[in-house]
Amino acid sequence: MKAQIDKPVPRNQPGGRILFLNPPSDQKLYRGMVCNWLSKAKYVWKPFDFILLSAWVPEDVEAIYIDSFIHQASLTDILEFIERHRITALVMSMSSIVWRNDLAILQNIRRRFPRLRIAVLGDIFQEIEFARQVLPLEVTVIRHPFDPALGEYFADGRSESLSLLQSLEEGAAELPPIEIRSPVDLPLPRQQVFLNPHQRSPFDKYRASTIVNTNWSCPFECSYCSYSSPYLPFAYRNPESVLRELASLKELKVREIFFGDATFGMPQASGWEILQGIEERGLKFSWHCYLRPKNVSDEFLALMARSGCHTVIIGVESSHPEMLARFNRRINTLEIDGFVRSCHRLGMAVCGDFILGLNDSPDDWKLLTDFAIGLKLDYASFNIYIPMLGSRERKQAIKEGRLERGAWGYDTTGARKSMVRHSENRLRCVRRFFGRPGYWLKRLVKIRTFGEVVIKLEEFIHLYLINR
Length: 468
Prior knowledge:
The protein is of the alpha/beta class. It folds into 2 domains: 17-165, Response regulator (Rossmann fold); 191-466, pyruvate-formate lyase- activating enzyme (Alpha-Beta Horseshoe), CATH 3.80.30.20. It has helices at residues 48-54, 75-84, 99-112, 128-134, 149-156, 191-194, 239-251, 268-280, 298-306, 333-345, 364-374, 392-399, 426-434, 437-446, 450-466, and strands at 17-22, 29-31, 36-38, 62-67, 89-93, 117-121, 140-142, 164-165, 209-212, 215-216, 235-236, 256-259, 286-290, 309-317, 349-356, 379-384. Strands 4-1-5-6-7-8 form a 6-stranded mixed β-sheet. Strand 15 (349-356), helix 11 and strand 16 form a beta-alpha-beta unit.
């Protein structure tokens, strides 16, 4: 394990020590509460779930973070660390992609430390079958990061909230519904614990970067997306709590922020208040975010640009947006094209997310890539359709018998398991979009910092050369 984690044992903490753990795996995988975040190039995602949860940790409890990929930690290293550092509580993320691996790690930790307080989180716990497999290990399943009951849980391990699942009713067929009251006055997250230059977003312009969430889940109901899961109610923060966090990040010398919301600026009144607060209080950062292009006013985009936004990421998904209506996503080509043009006029770059496999055509990859090029997108992310845990599409596929209950192992790169024919075409999309000489010339012209030169060079080498 790297020296920055393998440090001398500190003196006892009055309230103990909590370890946030992204466990070992053979790839750069961040196991999120809603979905998994896979790196397609050099970057490694920051742990936004853990960052939010750290806000509820009592002040007398020390928070520690290990990402097993970044810190080069094996299971043996982790077991030794827990014992040597006298860890009193563990929060471990788990994934539907490597479920058996993660379950085995959890079982090993429980055997070694039968009295350790353990909580788990992950996309996998949006289905009751998987919660049933871990609850006998006397763990708590954290289902939502905005529940104030987390403060009580981190203090003494107890909670009666349904968003911190500690048992299931006998014979229950579905997970119990949860409710979160908004706005949530989130305490200040312990961002300093998670600041690591080896973790970042692919769109960062500076190494000193982090993730901030202003809301959680999504108010829209696209049926293929896990963010629209009925088990993850949309909730948003009090704008003042967001502004307090941004002020603290200024003191920590952070320069780049990724607003990790599924849709930044929701609800709209809250988004306006946050952006106006950034402008009025001098809290301008270099930043980027996900945004829903439909019904975003030019005034809102202009305020985003003035406050430092340089890149927005949008879900385009298909070269035939009208087809997306059957997935409850209603947007047309003209709206997308107009949005991209508006962003470019304001000096903001646009990345489009695409899903390969929404139709069964073997030539879909070419149509998809040509559509992305025609939109004059600055970046494009190509993903394989998967039955995401919690999504309405997955539930329908199970009901129709196209998918078995408890199925796991799918990822959006198609590297492990895929329901999509021709999933190997994802790499053809990448080569076609990013392989244009003129594309890289335009990107180089727009680079403004030395740090961005290094970041973009790393991404190019891994995306287009190493991963091809």
